[in-house]
Structure formats: C-alpha cells, structure tokens
Amino acid sequence: MTGAYMRSEVRRKFRDPRYLIFALAMPLILFGAFGAAQSHNHLSGITVAAYVMVSMATFGAMSSVFSTGGAIAFERAIGWNRQLRITALTGRAYVAGNGLAGFAVAVPSLVLVFLAGGLLSHVHLSAGRWLMTSLSILLALLPVAALGIWVGYMAKAESVQAISGAVYSLLSLLGGLWVPVTVFPHWIFEVIKALPMYWVAQAGRQALIGSWVGWQGVAVLTAWTGILAMFAARAYRRNSAKS
Amino acid sequence: MTGHPRSPLGAVHLSGVQKSYGKTRAVRDIDLDISPGEIVALLGPNGAGKSTIIDMLLGLTDPDGGHIRIFGEAPSLASSRGRVGAMLQSGGLPSELTVLELIELITALYPVSLPADEVLERAGIADLASRRSDKLSGGQKQRVRFALAIVPDPNLLVLDEPTAAMDVESRQAFWTSMRQWASSGRTVLFATHYLEEADTFADRIVLLREGRIVADGATTEVRALAGGRTLRCTLPLADLNDLGSLPGVASVSVHGNGVSMTCTDSDATVRALLGRYLEVHDIEISGAGLNEAFLALTATPEEVRS
C-alpha cells in the first residue's frame, strides 16, 4: 500500500517542473559551469571536477529529498490528505510513502551528475565506488528528509515554496556545496561542522576516495536526524490529531 | 420525531454525540439512526455542525463524547475497510495525475476495490480517463471525486456539499447518477444548505441548528413541522420582542411599518395580534414553503429579530 502510494508520488514529481529544474537541471548546469573542466586541479585530495561533482549531486539529491515537504504541504492545502485518510492507508504509511518517494527521485539527481562527471571530467570509479558514494549521500540525507516532513506539516502551501528556496540556499551555502568550505574563515568552518549539510557532501567525497565520513560526521548527522525527526513527529501528530 | 427504526446495526448510528472546538460547541448531543437504503439530507446553515458530523462519521475526527457506529463498526475501521465512501468538501485533486491514475491509486489503497474501468464506467467518465485533473471543468472534477468515492464499492456514501460548485444542469445530472447508484439499496447521506436539493433528492431531512437536530423526518413532515404559515401585516412602531412573545410565533422581522412573522399556529397568532394591537391592518396569511419552514426552524433568534 505504501508502495503504491510512493509510486504515485514519484510519478507526480517527474511531472513537476520544480523537481525537473531544481533537482535535475540545475545541478547539472552548475556542474558544467563550475566544475566539469577542472579535471587537473586538486581540492581536498580529489580533482576539483570530482569535488564539484559530489557537491552538485548532493545539492540535487537534497532538493529531491526535501521536496517531500512541499508535497505534504500541498496535499494538506487541497484536502487530498483527507481523501487518503479515509482509505486503508495509515498516517504512518502516508509519511513513509512520501519520504521514500523523496529518496527515490534523489537517485536520478545523483546519476545524472555522476554521468556528467564520468563522461566530461574523467572521474573514473569502479561500479562499487559509485554505488557507495550514492548510498553514502542518500543515507546522510536522513536529517534533510526529517526537516522536509517537519516543514510539510508546519508550513502553509502558499509559503512552502519560499521556505524551500530559503532552505535550499542556506543548506547549500552552509554545506559548502556552492563554495568550498575552505574559503570560509576558521570560526565559520567550525559552525558549519556542527550542521548536517557539510557532512552529507563529505560522506559523498570520502566514499569517492574509498574512505568514510568518520565518527564526527556520523555523530552530527545522527544528532540532527534525531532532533528533526522529533519535531517532524510532533508536527505530524498535531496535524492528524482527531480533534 | 424520527419514526425510524433504531438499530445499532443500521447503516449509521449516533447516540449522544458531542464535539467542541475550543469554546465553540460544534455538535451538541446528537442522536441519529439511518437505515440501509435511506437517502438522507443533513440540512442547515453554515456552522450548524454538518461538516463536523460528517468528519466524525468518517473517522477523520473523534467525538468528545457519545457513540458512533457505521454498520456496527467504529468509523475509521468502516472507512478503511471501504464500507463508506466519501466526497469531502475540500477534496482537491493532485494536478499532475490523470483521472485513471487517480482512480488506480485509490484502488490500490483499499483491501477490496472495483476494477478501475468499472469505476470509470459507473461514474460516467470513461472519456476522461487520460485527462489530467487540472484540465477538468468543475462538474467533471466532481464526477471524478464521485468515482473516487465509489472505488471500494461502499454501502454508504457520504457527501459534504457535493454540488456546491455546480451549475443547475450538472447538479441535475449529478443527482441522477446518484439516484441510480443508490437504487440497489445503498445508503446516501449528504450535507447541503440548498433546500430544494434536500427536498428533491432526499427521502428524509435532518435539520440542524447550532449543533442540534431541530427536525428529523420525511420531507413533507419537516415542511409541516414549521406550521406552514407566514403572517404579514402593517403595524407602525411595532416592538420586536412584544411580537415575538405572541402565541404561535416562530420568528419575526420588521421592515419599516411592515411586519412579517413565521408562525407555527397562525390562528392563535392572529387572535392575539388583533386583541393586543388595535392599529394593526392589512393582515395577510399565506402557507409557507419549505424555505420558510427552513428559516423558522434553523434561524437563531438574534438573526431573525434584526
């Protein structure tokens, strides 16, 4: 049942211009503009092209996963969630289906940018390495999924787009997706390391060179997942309370 | 007043049901039984509690007190098992999906469903199957929502203001297909504030005011309940409260020297009126239509005495 609902949500996202622009086209264009040609310079132990490739793939996947928030807010606004609530789809299955749909559409975001990296910028990895890089990014995006669900239950449909735009920009900037974190002053870098998004990109970069994100990264990501999931759960319960 | 069999195994059973939102008492102590095969209108002005009752029947909202059973089951269980289908008031459709995709989605969300093509057929929208929902007219959307409601082949259909956005023609067509659907002994409960709609399509009208049932019976009974008389007269400097206290008066309104009273017993009213006001003239008594009955029974005192 969750599967059927998830498939339907995935189908909707593929027909949504916002998804096509922010999660598919934009990361690809930004990669082409800023990273694709730099296959000789190095940054943090990998080529600049590979670095930017992971950043842009992470940006696209983040947009996909966060789109759950817009979907929930919109379905609440038009009353579609009420239509679903009178079927056998439980509230939890609804949230799960929405969240899983976000991760499902994150896969094409990653694949497209990785294809561009492999074909245009000579980022050559084994199949296993590509897979580990993708899985690391997706797993590290769990706090973003929780944030999306929280926003979906808190925001009004009219404001969710503006909120999403702000969240994308802030997360990308504070995650060093648009500008490498090395250009920031030291103290800002310390703040960034306490936030989740830097570690999402880091999870991808480390997996790319056959390493892993490390305990600090896991700790930060786990803590943020816990906190945001708690907020999301509270907003969900308040919203579906039958009072 | 009901005159209907009270069975806990009927289609719908409510006893002592209450619901408040903050200080607003949306539904106060409602008892209602609906037998299988009945077509019942929940009639009342905005804020009378119609939507709250419907939300509770579907398990979308829990009552604060009282007992609700749908075919002997708890509302949310009856809904999830597909024994109840509903057209909700705010029921928008996701614009990225086609009509067929919407129906297939809802089909997958019930344990047992009609085949999608049969749903399309029964709702008369086979020609719209591949149309995206943002390309539908208001009437077509409503037929799609009817289709979604009948997906699990429910025994009870609950409709919240189903024709609110329809023109006269599509309203007529909608009710024709509804009658057809209900003809095989299925139960329909619909909320409306259109009198003629309740009068034309329901076998029974449940009239609500401020969260209470003020009348419940066959359409003709409800009409009779209001006494069916309107008394008009000319009376300078009339006092609203004085007039309202006359015997047999349900409601009063005054426009300049003209007075209009809805009466439950116009004979008693006219006797008292002539006895108390010597200057009264141009008395005219007419039989009330359903409109007047509705007003007399549902209006709050403050509204009428303005």
Kindly describe this structure.
The complex is a heterodimer of chains A (about 240) and B (about 300). In chain A, about 80% of the residues lie in helices and about 0% in strands. Chain A is mostly helical. Chain A has a two-stranded antiparallel sheet. Chain B is built from twelve helices and 13 strands. Residues about 1-10 and about 300-305 of chain B have low confidence and may be disordered. Chain B is elongated, with a radius of gyration of 22 Å. Chain B has a six-stranded mixed β-sheet with strand order 5-6-7-3-8-9, with helices on both faces. By secondary structure, chain B is of the alpha/beta class. Helix content of chain B is about 35%, strand content about 30%. Chain B starts with 11 loop residues before the first strand and ends with a helix. The interface of A and B includes residues 1, 11, 87 and 88 of A.
Give a quick set of tags describing it:
heterodimer, A: 243 residues, mainly alpha, two-stranded antiparallel ribbon, 11 helices, globular, B: 306 residues, alpha/beta, six-stranded mixed β-sheet, four-stranded antiparallel β-sheet, 12 helices, 28% strand, elongated, disordered N terminus, disordered C terminus
